[in-house]
Structure of DUF2281 domain-containing protein:
Amino acid sequence: MATLILSDEQVIELVKQLPVEQQVEVFRFLLLQQWGKWESLSRYGAEKARLVAQKKDLDWDLMTEGEREVFIDDVVHED
């Protein structure tokens, strides 16, 4: 079986030429390939956020989504 070598740009252009239904299938395939890594990173980030909140006498799990966003913004912009 011959191997075809394409640049990233060529692959993207080929995917763009697919019908929408097939583009969705490609997207689904790629998403599922990375799902485990994303889930692991998400758990890691949430645990670190809980620890930082706890050090500031806050409970991450009791915070609303808005409070979490403000908290993260404050942490990111701390000096």
Observations:
- The two ends are 58 Å apart (CA to CA).
- The chain has a mean pLDDT of 94.
- The chain is about 75% helix and 0% strand.
